[in-house]
Amino acid sequence: MTHLYTYVALDLARERAREAERAHRAAMAVSHQPARPSVVRRGLANGLALVSRSSAAAVRRLDDCVADDLSQALAPGK
Question: Domain locations in the chain?
Fold first, then answer.
């Protein structure tokens, strides 16, 4: 029975090695294509970074306003 498991494990290992080789060959074939996707990806990343930075700045401004309002509300009455 253990020989069966050994055979199955070896067969799975061979199949995975073949799949890895196919994936490697496909990646090598794709790497020789023009760099268009990276330009699009870079543009999207820059756009997302811009949105992220601007929303962080807006949150900081709102946080400052809330902190000022809170400090005035907690100040001893005049």
Answer: 1-34, 43-78
